[in-house]
Amino acid sequence: MTLLSPLGLLLLLALPVLVWLALRAQRPRTLVVGTLLIWRRVAAVVPPQREKSRRLDLLLYVLLAACALAALGAARPAPGGADGPAGLAIFVESLGAGEPGLDSVLARAAELAGNTPARVYAAAPLPGLETLGPVQRIVPGPIEAELAQFETATPGAPRLLFLAAPTPQALRLGRVLPRLETPRAGVVFEARAEGETLLLRQSDGPAPAVSGASLSGVNTAGGEQSREYRITAGSVRVTAPGQDITLARRGAGIGVGPDWNTDRHAALLAALRPEPGATPGVWLGSRDREPAVRVNQGSAADLSGTQCRLDWRHPLFAELPLAGLDLAAGGRVLEPAPSERVLARAWRDGQPAGALAVLSADGRVLRFAGDPFAELGLALAVLLLDNAVGVVTGTRPSQRQSFAVQGDLPSRRQALAGPFEPEGELSGVTTPAEPRSTAHWLLALAALGALAAAQISASGPRQP
Question: Full-prediction pTM beyond 0.70?
Fold first, then answer.
């Protein structure tokens, strides 16, 4: 039972007033006369009789009932409560910095929801969503993971989804509408450097303003653009609508020790593009510093007639032509420590003749018995050195970006968000009707009670 106008119950205050008036009317009244002697004689002759007051009691009960019914009628009771339809669940996908088109989402969601109570779900703090209803944050992640959380949190509820692009999973959940009503133009969603080359990917639109690099090529396909630049400065700044991206040169350096001292060594070092003046992250030819790639660590030995066997699954030999990789050409072998892992070994007649390359237990020191970087061909030596540095540092110089991106970039899905035809069904959302009140029945009974009280009162007192 729900009361639509609970202030009407204030009429119940009339009930105690009616009772007080009825009790006051029944009290005996004292009459002042000249003498009481004659009345004493009459009282002695005529036995006292009890006067009934049923007519007064009946009138009181009728008035109380009529007043109570009128009070309840004025409060407008609605049997069964005022429960409306199930609440609407709204999912809003984030588009990254600036959150474009959010005002349009709020207007469209409010129009579709009408007076239906709503709860909003989003993986990012989106300003203004609280105007639609309570906001519940979900864990950010791929759109599939976010939609799975939304589905779990809203069992049985009608769902409205505002997405960058429709997905089969979303169409199964409910009504899918575009997050944006106009496509995003010129939004950069990828910026990376490969050596001295900068690669940018963006949605179709005007070219970004780039300082510190010169454009060398553009490719357009599938609603996006790929731009290639030649870096000409120590830092690059990319400016696009709502975006300010900076790429700063990484501060990784390479140090050299006394065993890295030939022109070949200098050429190999230059091929790794070290940052001048940066703190060394690896040492080449060092005898006491770590992490390090050390050469000439073995003693001279006769290795004629030997075969070089490699642990070819190890990253040191990844993508190398193993047929031309002879680490025994220097005529040196070393004795590995018990904790060291042997990566290359010389064999003669089925017997080990000595280790050629070993790695420390913590992976920070790679030792070669000879100097393969001076003995192998230049191209093979560069590849081996790239792998060797990657083994002791965790990242090969050829795979490390020479520039680090400062600032967050939207995903490709966010950057390519645009309008599409609404799809899916939205069921169970209606404007809640006001509950039906039974006040007219109660007021009618109250009116009948009032008429009955008037009839009783007009009939006058009953004769004994």
Answer: no
